[in-house]
Amino acid sequence: MNWDAIGAIAELLGAIGVIVSLVYLAVQLKQNTQALRASSYQMLRQEVTETFQSRVATHGLRRSIREGLSDFAQLDEGDAFEFGYWANGIVNTYDNAYYQYRVGMLDRDRWEQQRAALVSMFGNPSFVMWWKTAPPPGMSPEFVALVEKILGEEGEGADGEQG
Questions:
Q1: What are the strands, taking DSSP E only, across 1-139?
Q2: Rounded to whole angstroms, how far apart are CA atoms 31 and 64?
Q3: 8: confidence class by pLDDT, cuts 50, 70, 90
Q4: 85 neighbors 135 (Cβ within 8 angstroms)
Q5: Rounded to an integer, what distance in angstroms lies between the CA atom of residue 51 and that of residue 87?
Q6: What is the DSSP letter of 123?
Q7: How many CB atoms lie within 10 A of CB 126?
Q8: pTM > 0.70
Q9: Is residue 92 scored above 80 in pLDDT?
Q10: Which among 57, 61, 70, 121 has the fewest CB atoms less than 10 Å away?
Q11: What share of the chain is helix, strand, coil (3-state, %, to 5)?
Q12: CA pair distance 50, 89, nearest whole angstrom
């Protein structure tokens, strides 16, 4: 065997090593993306739960929420503020979920679960009245457009295009 043949074999082995390394990196990248998505979803679920629990911790706020969901228009100024405080936290969580979906950190199936919950919330006339009376500040324009689309679909059964 001459040196040219040995060099060619070494180059071939090197190329195979590079290809194997690239395949390994691709697999690792996919697993990392899946782990990040799972972590993102877990954080989102925890945020939703904590928002519900922490903001409903006081009896007065529970009453404001219950009465607000029953008939927002009948709330006095203080109760309307408390209801808005609670609703704002919830809606901010869904704004976060929509952002995570748009940037690819929340997969479509998980987002559709969140969207279904959002559609359900906006199926409550009192929640809609709150949104139209005092839309929360700081929402992304994309999320506001999504909510407005959901509100527009209400008459159509809210089964329009997802996303």
A1: none
A2: 45
A3: confident
A4: no
A5: 10
A6: T
A7: 18
A8: no
A9: yes
A10: 57
A11: 80, 0, 20
A12: 10
